[in-house]
Amino acid sequence: MTLQISDADGVRTVTLDRPEALNAFNEALYDATTVALREADADPSVAVVLLTGAGRAFSAGNDLNEMAARVTDPDFQPGEHGFPGLMEALLELRKPLVCAVNGLAVGIGTTILGYADLVFMSTTARLKCPFTSLGVAPEAASSYLLPQLMGRQNAAWLLMSSEWVSATDAQRMGIAWKLCEPDQLLDEARTHAAVLASRPISSLMAVKETIVEPTRDEVKAAIAREYAKFEVLLGSAANADALAAFADRGQA
Fold first, then answer.
1. How far is the C-alpha of 227 from the C-alpha of 100, rounded, in Å?
2. Among 108, 175, 190, 194, which is most exposed with the fewest C-beta within 10 angstroms?
3. TM segments (predicted)?
4. How far apart are CA 109 and CA 24, in angstroms?
5. Best CA proximity match to 96, nearest among 49, 137, 132
6. pLDDT for 157-186, tens place per residue?
7. What digits encode the pLDDT tens for the residues 123-154?
């Protein structure tokens, strides 16, 4: 099982559940999360979606073993929905998305926050976008969404440096709304999610639509630009060297 799903007070909590892999997204987790978001969107009893992670990570990003297999294994089988399906589900989600970042958030673990309506972050959590250290391009429309959310310079540092960003700096930059002590994170996120869920779902959806609709085409265009760059860079010398170094560390 790659997800835990529970409902309470109109809030559907979706917990990424690959703790042994720090909740890294493989094809199975992309598929399961895509389905979970679509089902929550369609369920009239769900008003708000709360996304968090099991264990010490929110998500360690893309599963680099699968990334390497995508380049080197001619028999690699992508998932039914995969990364593109998750992007579509996030962009089309009509209900508020609350993220509770419980620990390490790398790559997609960070860029997914660009789709959140509220982000709660543990004081011990950290963010990283390791695109340049992997020799690849941004993803998830982060090249568009993060400058909109954080300002160009904050987004440039996050997307270009491949350095860790602390919870305090994440809040200062504008990507985290509230910081919480680790043992209070879920309670705080659920309390705020329940406040939203107490409002009429039709009104919540109308507010979200008016926020998202003006930028929907720009997000889709950003994803297309990033795909084009990613396709060129995936498997390049810099990317191959980075993945080989990762594999070597895993075998050490």
1. 27
2. 194
3. none
4. 8
5. 49
6. 999 999 999 999 999 999 999 999 999 999
7. 999 999 999 998 899 999 999 999 999 999 99
Range of the domain at 113: 3-183
CA distances from 57 to 30, 54, 84, 197, 227 (A): 16, 7, 23, 26, 26
Please tell me the distance from the alpha carbon of residue 181 to that of residue 249, in angstroms, as a whole number.
Answer: 32
pLDDT of 238 reads: 79
Instruction: Note the pLDDT of residue 252.
Output: 38
Q: Which of 217, 234, 218, 192 is nearest to 67 (CA)?
A: 234
pTM exceeding 0.85 = yes
Terminal-to-terminal C-alpha distance of the chain: 28
18 falls within a domain: yes
Q: How many CA atoms lie within 13 A of 239 on its CB side?
A: 20
The proportion of the chain whose per-residue pLDDT surpasses 70, expressed as a percent, equals 93
At 165 the three-state DSSP class reads strand
The answer to whether position 224 is within a domain reads no
Query: Within 10 A of 226 (CB to CB), how many other CB atoms are there?
Result: 22
37 belongs to a structural domain:
yes
- CB-based burial of residue 13 (10 Å sphere; 0-12 exposed, 13-18 middle, 19+ buried)? buried
Q: Is residue 234 part of a domain?
A: no
Strands, E assignment, the chain: 3-8, 11-16, 48-53, 57-59, 97-101, 104-106, 118-122, 126-128, 165-166, 178-180
